[in-house]
Amino acid sequence: MIEGRVSAAYEAVVRLTIQGPAGAAREIEAVIDTGFNGFLTLPPEVVEELSLPLEGIGRATLGDGSETTFPFYDVGVLWDGQMRYGLADAAATTPLVGMSLLRGYELHIAVEPGGRVVVESR
Known about the structure:
8% of the residues lie in helices and 55% in strands. It has helices spanning 44-49, 99-102; strands spanning 2-6, 12-19, 25-32, 40-42, 54-61, 67-79, 82-90, 96-97, 105-109, 116-121.
């Protein structure tokens, strides 16, 4: 089970440990984004710090209808006590947890500042 809290801005936030291929690890706070179908987004400086390997360039349509391109990288995430591997999109934004990382889990949110966020295996 993964637990977090709802921020004052009504964002569901969890703390995660992410890891690069050489074993370098870092703890981050990430916002759960149910509108993002990917695995994870990370700021470019975190990608560089962990020396994540580039896997390719992706294209996405944003909420405002505009299109953008972005690099994506291999990353490991300590998720519910186990390492899960996937692709992290590099974006100059707050780290985001996407629906692909949440696959196989249930999400419960007490929607109020300080409310409990629980991600648990089905």
